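User: Assemble these into one structure.

Assistant: Restating your components, then the assembled model:
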Amino acid sequence: EAQVTQNPRYLITVTGKKLTVTCSQNMNHEYMSWYRQDPGLGLRQIYYSMNVEVTDKGDVPEGYKVSRKEKRNFPLILESPSPNQTSLYFCASSLVRVGYEQYFGPGTRLTVT
Amino acid sequence: KQEVTQIPAALSVPEGENLVLNCSFTDSAIYNLQWFRQDPGKGLTSLLLIQSSQREQTSGRLNASLDKSSGRSTLYIAASQPGDSATYLCAVLTQGGSEKLVFGKGTKLTVNP
């Protein structure tokens, strides 16, 4: 089954404790991205990747890091999480950036206390 | 800067009604527009993708139209069912030096039995 998976689905952590949210797709997609969704603000892009070793900032990259060492994986790293990073995070992928629909993962609900 | 607006923010209709959801965007330089469905606590499911050169796309009871010059798209849902209850999001992939997917804040649809 074609899908985007994220782990963990739910995470409660404390300020400053480094964490990684994993994202994996099994569709051989070149393009992957991370979004956060907040009430009243909608979905905002954090980072995206056009292919292996090619990443770029989205609208709200501060406080986040990403890497794309393999085509299928695109982890999101929070080096020192803060309460304002409490949010619902989505990973997405598409065959290429333009012209193809985006597939979304189920989401990771992160709470930073 | 691209801005996407969806009106209304919420809509409640009786089962069986035909309905229209609206999406407008400020910059007509787009590659495509995509409509998504989001169920509570779940990820986004792609419904329809309209390329900038197309006028409409249909899938089952759903029909999406695009008027790029006026910066508008509509999602038409025929013979609504309680299972259609969800939040519907539109997103545009903008052209330019930093192509990005920009989302509207969504329309929360409730179809009452």
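DSSP finds no helices and eleven strands in chain B.
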